[in-house]
Amino acid sequence: METVNGYRLILGYIGYIMMLAGVIILLPLLVLISYPDDAFYANCFIVPGVLTVFAGYLMTSLIRNKERGRLHKGQDILIVLLTWIMTILAGAAPYYLSRQYSVTRAIFESASGFTTTGLTVTPVDIAPHIFLMYRSMTLFFGGVGLILIVTSIISEVYGMQLYTAEGHLDRLMPNLAASARTVLVIYSGFIFIGVLLYVWGGMSWFDAVNYSMSAVSTGGFATHSDSIAHFNSRFIEGVTIILMLIGGTNFNLLLITLRGNFKALIKHCETRFSFWLYLAAVPLLTLLLYRDRITDFWDSAHMALFQCVSAVTTTGLDTSHTLDKWPTAQLILMMMLMLVGGAAGSTAGGIKQFRLYIITRRLVNSFRERLAHKRIVFPNTVNIYGKNTRMDDNITDICLYTVLYIAVCLLGAFAFSLYNQYNFTQCIFDFTAALTSGGYSNGVVGPASPRGILWISVVAMFLGRLEIYVVIIGILRIFSDIRAKITKMKY
To answer: Model-level pTM greater than 0.70?
Structure first.
């Protein structure tokens, strides 16, 4: 039997994901049952959906019923990188075919959805229902992870390589396929509960499905231009806060908690880190909002709680009405919260709480060692899922990644600032929102943005979703393979 290796193997694996991408494009057609007037846009989904499924099927023929070779170093990351690029491009087709989006804006909207960023160029108050649902579905599949959904198709060894390369850190069950199913069940279950609660709170079924997917995926797409503020309901805002917190929590920790181990949840390092983070940020934002008379004190407190949770979980849903008019101090605080981000292994973006907790612990231990009367080395142990684990070996990589992340933020803000109509606060805030998948905008990124701003944002969203390293390693792998091919041709 023929053994498939190299790029034939890579393209074969990507074919399965492309078939999934085609199905994602076709799924919004179900909306036509309730909104038949949107049938005018049916071909915008049928044509690219069918073609993407067919193209994916042809690609899988490269490895179907054949002996599959080994994935060499870096090829797993290359599969993830190419998968996301091809899915975003395929996902842009319905927008472009509607004739309401240019190529740039179609790719931007697709990238924002699949990376669960939530920045948008869509006029949501007048957009057809089929497109609003499609946006939310891209959040759903992008949040849970494209690779995870089809990972059971791939062998256990190579599937785990891709599963890890996409950013999933833990197996929830003894084997990979069971882990994938468990994540999907947890993810879908919370969305279903969110839908029921939203309907109970007064939302229509259509809005409830969209906002529940948006909140749990920490994506932030809304069906109204004033986001959650449209409903003027404390109950709906409370449900949204809970759903965002769930989306920003590690899947493994959610499973442990659902099994009744609340002690592991309370002792987990990220739980403690987020508790102190909210304890500091919410009162501070409350005082800043009240100081500037944006609202009265209790409204300021409620708004601060919602906005802090939305920023930390990098969701981007909003109750403020006037975020683009907030003073600089509030915007900087929100930006810092987006940089912190959610838990590792969650749908949220940002640097991630786990990394910053490790850095904070190491910094505190460093001061304690210097203040001690005698030479003492404090062990850098953290509580993960109820167990103390030494993290000394990971500190260097964590610090390097954090520095790289902040450097990318500054470079991106500089790129935005080349368009002279924006000030630095707007530039750093909006680029941070794109990189962290925060979804907020202070006026730089939006429907009226220049094409260059949108393309820079697409790159930022892509880097943030795949955590920078994956993109860099994938690109380096491609160049390495091209160079090796050229060298081989010379000799």
So the answer is: yes
